[in-house]
Amino acid sequence: MSLAAFADAAFAAQGYTVAPHEIELSLDDFKSEFAANGSVDRKALNFWCESPGSGAKIFVFYADERNVGVKTMRTFVQTLETHTSAQESSSGRTR
What we know:
Blueprint: H1 3-13, H2 20-23, H3 27-34, E1 47-50, E2 57-60, H4 70-91
Antiparallel strand pairs: 1-2
């Protein structure tokens, strides 16, 4: 099973869809976009999923640290705020 198929199935099982452009990358494209320096830039992997029926959304966040603590949670909140602002700007919504 490809990574794209796994991700799609995992989120679909919970009722969420992943935008095709988020998961339909060849390995070479993935490496050039997310691992240009040889290691994966986990901060660039964050994305939104949406439940088509309810419109509910979840934010997928990949932490740099193995153990989640206060530092990681602060990073998550800052990242979520940035992505939320960007998403609202692109859709024309405001808080």
